[in-house]
Prior knowledge:
Involved in DNA repair and RecF pathway recombination. By secondary structure, the chain is an alpha+beta fold.
Amino acid sequence: MSLYRDTGVVLRVQKLGEADRIITLITQKHGKVRAVAKGVRRTTSRLGARVEPFAHVDVQFYTGRTLDVITQVQTLDAFGAGIVGDYQRYTAGCAILETADRMSAEEGEPVLRLYLLVAGALRALADGERDASLVLDAFLLRALAFAGWSPALTECARCGDPGPHRAFNVHAGGSVCLRCKPPGSASPPYEVLHLMDSLANGRWDSAERATDSTRREASGLVAALLQWHLERQLRSLPLVERRPFVGRQSAGEAE
Ligand SMILES: [Zn+2]
């Protein structure tokens, strides 16, 4: 029996059989881990309460044949206590967990930076000192950067002209100059891109001066960027897997 320990945040829990759960965590050293917590759905289980979504935990696993098994859990931060009772914090928190789950696609692939971003964002949400939607947008912009999808926010995404520019195009990669601007680009006010730049770089004093309408418009652009990149990433998967199948079939028909 091979044991290992790691620190992680619980992203998701799923039922398994009568009494068990599969727990998905984003960890410091082992990337995304899916492991079985046995007996946690019994009301007497002390382990069960510790492996709920948003929990920041220190876990001991043993390596199983298919899934690893959780043998010990210590709570580091019960972030859920400060999150689940407030609708805005809860929805922002769920978006953070779901994004982290989708961005850490490969199990076991190290994602230290993403883990740190998740833990930091949940801590800020649970503390409740910052606007939950700003915390979420700051997390999403940094998660985009982690994935290599940082939008251009001052320079032109196409020609690199230093800017700042008024046009913004999700498909083109962010702000674009008048010469490069594709049809159908948005024209957000300067303050919107300035807010996104402040959030991406942790300049909270500047970010918190933004008006509600600026915050709303920035949230819309951040959501559009995330959706575009995640969908494109997912759309590429079926294409990769389908091609050899179609190829074999058509080769068979030709014979
Ligand atoms: Zn340009």
